[in-house]
Amino acid sequence: MGDRTSAESALSAVFNRRLFLGAGVVAVGTAGLAGCGGSSSSGGGGGGGGDATGEVSFGSNASDEVPKKAFEATFAAYDGGTVKVNTVDHNTFQEQINNYLQGRPDDVFTWFAGYRMRFFAKKGLVSDVSEVWDKIGGGFSDAIKKASTGDDGKQYFVPLYNYPWAVHYRKSVFESGGYEIPKTLDDMITLGAAMKKDGLAPLAFADKDGWPAMGTFDYLNMRINGYDFHVNLMAGKEAWDGPKVAAVFDTWRRVLEISQPNSLGRTWQEAAQSVAQKKAGMYLLGTFVGQQFKEGAERDDLDFFPFPEVDPAVGADAVEAPIDGFMMAKRPKNADGAKKLLEYLGSAEAENAYLATDPNDVGVHKDVDTSKYNALQKKAAELIGGAKSISQFLDRDADPTFASTVAIPAFQNFIKNPADAASIAKSMEEQKKSIYTN
Amino acid sequence: MTAVETAERAPDRPVVRRRRPLTPGRVLLHVFLALTSLLFLFPLLYAVYTSLRPYAETAEYGYFSFPRGLTFDNYAAAWEQSRVVRFLLNTLIIVLPALVLILLLSSFVAFGLARFRVRGRKGLLILFTAGNLLPQQILVTPLYQAYRLWDDQDWVLDRQAFIYDTYWGVIAIHVAFQIGFCAFVLTNYMESLPHELTEAALVDGAGVWRQYWTITMPLCRAPLAALATLEFTWIYNDFLWALVLMNTGDKRPITSALNNLRGQFFTDNNLLAAGAVIIALPTVLVYFVLQKQFVGGLTLGANKG
Amino acid sequence: MAVTTAEVPARDTPAAGPPGPRRRRSANRWTRRDKLVLGLMIGVPTAISVLLVWLPALASVGLSFTRWDGIGLDTISWVGLRNYREIFTIYPPFFPALWHNVLWLAFFLLIPTPIGLLLATLLDKEIRGTRIYQSAIFLPVVLSLAIVGFIWQLIYSTDQGLVNAVITRFGADPVDWLGNPDINLWAVLLAASWRHVGYMMILYLAGLKGVDPTIKEAAAIDGATAWQTFRYVVFPALRPVNIVVLVITVIESLRAFDLVFVINGGRNGLELLSVLVTQNIIGEASRIGYGSAIASIMLVISTVFIGIYTVNVFREERR
């Protein structure tokens, strides 16, 4: 797999985790120019003509083969008018989102739930879609609705799917080693020691691109300090240099002892490969990790378990499961058409059409057809369904400036020098105060 | 060149030129230079070698191995999948107008400053020369914001006269940035042209424009060719401007598009090598064909001083 | 545009103005149109340069005293020196980046520049095939730094790279050339030097061509060794070239960006000032004031060297 992923090391690599969904296995990229501009170059960033006859322009960051095809299938099943898709490279789309929204955005565009959604809502760069929610609201749980709501209590986001983060492993490795699924972190560390003895790297780990370590931090934080603390910490309301975050770093230090070394030069694809090749025992990542496993026996051998409990008083019922979906531009050229499209995208029908082509995620609609789910999808749906609270991900729950310019280097620093946790946390707090001022 | 002046006077004896015998020292020198040349060519040669090997072969035997079968498949794949043609075309759309404008505008300035006594001449020369030396990152933020502000004006919206995410926007900054260097080189060159040339024209009653266009410019073919070669390479190789000032991936020139191509299309090192060779080829060709101009341009600019 | 034409001989048109001193008369010989044309020829490029290069550069300085997320002009707020204070106190990547830039410069001055000078001296001798050697060594200069980054990743890559393929063949452990923050900067500097040597060589070759060969011969006849000739005769004569080389090397070191950006986005051991600017201003993180403050620091550093250069260039003008 080698350096397949270094495109990710571009500066927005942080937000890139879905970039290779599909591309990894589809390998030599049978896509035409999927990544770099997509179907309509004529419109540029702008939404093209926007006739009154119901054409809606759709800005898509789904530049990879699989999600791109999935959107084509989704729109093919839409009978409410034509959708003009303007696909932009995934990286570029996120890098330039500020600019895109202030320039000539498409009527409807792909985006993420979390602070990153509420931020643009607060800035007035996107439209309130509460009207759409009046019609589609019945199909979603309260948690999903909450995740689609801005600070002012109105909805700004229509969700499509999500995918959980969990500890992945190969069933055959666990069988042959006689390993058991750990229920607590202590179990996992004991298990790690056993794997080490058997010549395995216990926990695969990669952070060349900066964002994967955020998943480890989030889970440890939610298991030790609880979901509410996570939310407040991300919102800048809690201290990074307090005892609570210190406890997270202390625990993480223990986890690092069973983690694969040299993680800063490794991409997640390479780490996933080490699990696929049975060189590593476990790997904490989103379910998209499955893309690195060959379809068939190898993929069927892949399984996951929820991130184990650390403190029995806190439990393990918070799940990190980022939601992807859509927003509407501030001044859409075709507002009625855009709302109609969003109504469709917020339906079980649209989710079914999408998931039929991209089975790496799970639907968020109550009526989504789960009968076609594969085993992992079913398990993922159960995990999310059983969760008491759902977090997005550090870079979606926190201020983007903080996530990319503070959290990434800080975590990389911690991985390099785990003993420096105190000074790293202090520095994060100082920078947080400077960034979260308004 | 002040070099000659500072040097001590040569003795009044004519220098006898003779063919040097091939001493052991000379042989050693040749061996050293040949090895050094190979060392410098090595990374490129290795890229070419890797690009010609099938992925399956390198996967099995490793990259440090003798070839079993060479193939152009990687080139075919890189060419088709990444649609490099499209990006090369984008580069041309940017480079050609930029080249014309840069040479035209810089020769204007050079002509004005070299052939006339213009108040503030020195200040202007410093403005152009120093501007070209600024790191790009110093200008990039305000430039990007200014482009966006421009696009936000109502009349711009009405006429769709956008500048952000357009070829013209990228051409404009290349022109502004590169005029400096070319103006500097051309001013020096034009100053060295004898004044008698234009005097004759003056007698014929030629205006400023005719002095510039029909008399001065034809004499500047050599530096113009040198600058064109150099500027082609520089603009072709530029990475940052289009990266920041464009957001439609499909419009980006080849060098800026590179980073996105990697990972999406150039998924293994063999394919990546093929892509790198394809992208490097235009500048390498220009260099081999126009080597004299290239080196000439570089030293023209640098030697003054 | 203020244009006087005293130096240029008068045009032979019917004398329209009153008789007077020659200089005065000649100035009047230029038609309005000529003055306008000349004004435009100088004015338009000047305006472009001021508008797109100098104003943005100054605006960076202005923005460095503000806080701005880049969304709407009304959100700009004046914060005085706060960005600078924070960059110097609580922004961990700043000093590593500054240090890496300094290392970059020192490395360039100490390794590829002398090598370039050495090669130029060797190639300046009358030897057969000098053109071929020159072409080979100079070739990397025509490649973009982004491509240089790609080509060298073929060599450095942990799993698919040449170096690791070779050293593991001999039983050594693979080295994480680009991921290990203790070595990745040096690996990158080697790649950057590959390109810099040729550049320096060509500059020095041109400089050496300007050194009168007879002095060298004279020195040799006087019994000077090759080194003494170089040290006491040739090198002093290269002073103007050395200044150019110094300035170009400083500017190249400050501009270094593409190479580290394509390798890992400029993090984890490859931080540079130019990368920090980019990280703060493009992308979702938009701390315009912060990024501008780092850019302004770069401006100050480069101004010093650009100053040295222009003073040198234009001192000669005064002759």
From TrEMBL, chain C:
The transmembrane segments are 36-59, 102-123, 135-155, 183-206, 293-314
Q: Segment Disordered: which positions?
A: 1-27
How is the protein disposed in the membrane?
Multi-pass membrane protein
Q: Where is the ABC transmembrane type-1 domain?
A: 98-309
Q: For this UniProt record, give its keywords in alphabetical order, as a comma-separated list.
A: Cell membrane, Membrane, Transmembrane, Transmembrane helix, Transport
Give the UniProt family note.
Belongs to the binding-protein-dependent transport system permease family.
Q: What is this protein called?
A: ABC transporter, permease protein 1 (Cluster 1, maltose/g3p/polyamine/iron)
Which species? uncultured Mycobacteriales bacterium
